[in-house]
TrEMBL record:
Residues 6-60 form the HTH lacI-type domain. The keyword Nucleotide-binding does not apply. Residues 347-358 have a biased composition (Basic residues). GO terms for molecular function: DNA-binding transcription factor activity; transcription cis-regulatory region binding. Residues 337-358 are annotated as: Disordered. Keywords: DNA-binding, Repressor, Transcription, Transcription regulation. SMART domains: HTH_LACI. This is LacI family transcriptional regulator. The lineage of its organism: Bacteria, Pseudomonadati, Pseudomonadota, Gammaproteobacteria, Lysobacterales. InterPro entries: HTH_LacI, LacI/GalR-like_sensor, Lambda_DNA-bd_dom_sf, Peripla_BP_I. CDD domains: HTH_LacI (cd01392), PBP1_LacI_sugar_binding-like (cd06267).
């Protein structure tokens, strides 16, 4: 006798939650606690639960494959993002087809067009979304799409975004609250929407505080550019009180430049990043950063895409109305040692809401 198909009730029983909770967790609804969502996904993966997968494949031309097109596949941010996407894909019986384009718009356009006929839907992160016609010309027509951190001047596709501006403002305000007045900012690639929003948040926060001084250094969201910026900061002749890097990888590169020069963090200069990659808590000193739930971003993006795919033609007519309502994830300030140990401890004792300490 063949193995009996696993049902949603089996998943609910094993995870010790209700069938409704399993459904909400698998479909990426926000009213499920994160630990519960992860538990459900793990149980569904372990039991190899696939909702009506066989029936769908017989009644449609489904490939059971999801296309994922990202700027890069290297680095902890993309590793975490793919980990979240993969967790949902495995739980839902889907396979992933990955592609990257390394900052070349022509390569991204080619990667998007190459997905036609090979996948049931697309997850796309593109810094070129604000270029007139770029997405419309390159995204396969009638294929379900969810954009991740991609700016759309006129929203046409469902999207998940990080509030990069608010996160950068919160970090600058944290550094100012600790007494740092001269703050250097290491930015990201000029074409990158996340980088532009974090820079805008930095500038707005500095402008809102008389007496605060901001300095800007170029970066490329990698360790090498953070290292170069760190050396440039030390060579500038006017050492800032703190450095805020637009992502953690640049912050770690900057930290290495300071260590090489014998500059103590946070004793001589404070340091902060953005993203909260797993490595951020394990370096010395541990890195103050803005926590983005990167894996959760991937999980929710794929869950939202699968909702579109499973709705099929019936859902196509309402997709446009839903497209304009981007789901926004707000980063959380995580205070660690690098921004100033004693001041950070004092802030934590005050118990400010919305901020974490590790």
């Amino acid at each position: 006798m063949g193995r009996q198909a696993v049902t949603i009730r089996d998943v609910a029983r094993e995870a010790k939650v209700s069938v409704a909770t399993v459904s909400r967790a698998l479909n990426g609804h926000s009213n499920v606690a994160e630990p519960v969502r992860r538990q459900v996904l793990e149980v569904a993966r372990r039991l190899r639960y696939s909702p009506h997968g066989a029936a769908r494949s017989l009644s449609s031309r489904s490939t059971q494959t999801i296309g994922v097109v990202l700027p890069d596949l290297h680095g902890e941010f993309f590793s975490e993002l793919i980990r979240g996407i993969d967790a949902v894909a495995r739980a839902r019986g889907r396979r992933l087809l990955l592609s990257s384009y390394h900052g070349d718009p022509d390569e991204q356009g080619a990667a998007l067009r190459a997905m036609r006929g090979r996948v049931d839907g697309l997850l796309v992160m593109s810094p070129y979304g604000d270029r007139p016609g770029f997405l419309a010309e390159n995204l396969p027509q009638l294929l379900p799409v969810v954009l991740i951190n991609t700016h759309q001047p006129e929203p046409a596709w469902p999207a998940l975004e990080i509030d990069n501006h608010a996160g950068a403002v919160a970090m600058v305000e944290h550094l100012l609250a600790l007494g740092h007045r001269r703050i250097a900012f290491i930015g990201g690639p000029a074409h990158n929407h996340d980088a532009r929003e974090r820079l805008r948040g930095f500038r707005d926060a500095i402008a809102a505080h008389p007496g605060a001084v901001g300095e800007e250094y170029p970066g490329e969201f990698d360790e090498a550019s953070g290292h170069r910026a760190g050396r440039a900061i030390l060579a500038s002749g006017t050492r800032p009180d703190a450095v805020f890097a637009a992502n953690d990888m640049m912050a770690l590169g900057c930290l290495y430049a300071f260590v090489q020069a014998g500059v103590r963090v946070p004793g001589d200069i404070a340091l902060a990043g953005f993203d909260d990659i797993p490595l951020a808590r394990f370096v010395h000193p541990s890195l103050t950063t803005m926590r983005v739930s990167i894996a959760a971003l991937g999980e929710r993006a794929l869950a939202r895409l699968l909702e579109q795919i499973e709705a099929g033609a019936d859902g196509a007519e309402t997709a446009g109305a839903a497209a304009g309502a981007a789901q926004v994830m707000v980063p959380e300030l995580v205070v660690r040692e690098s921004s100033g140990r004693e001041a950070a401890r004092a802030q934590a004792r005050r118990g400010r809401p919305g901020k974490g300490r590790e």
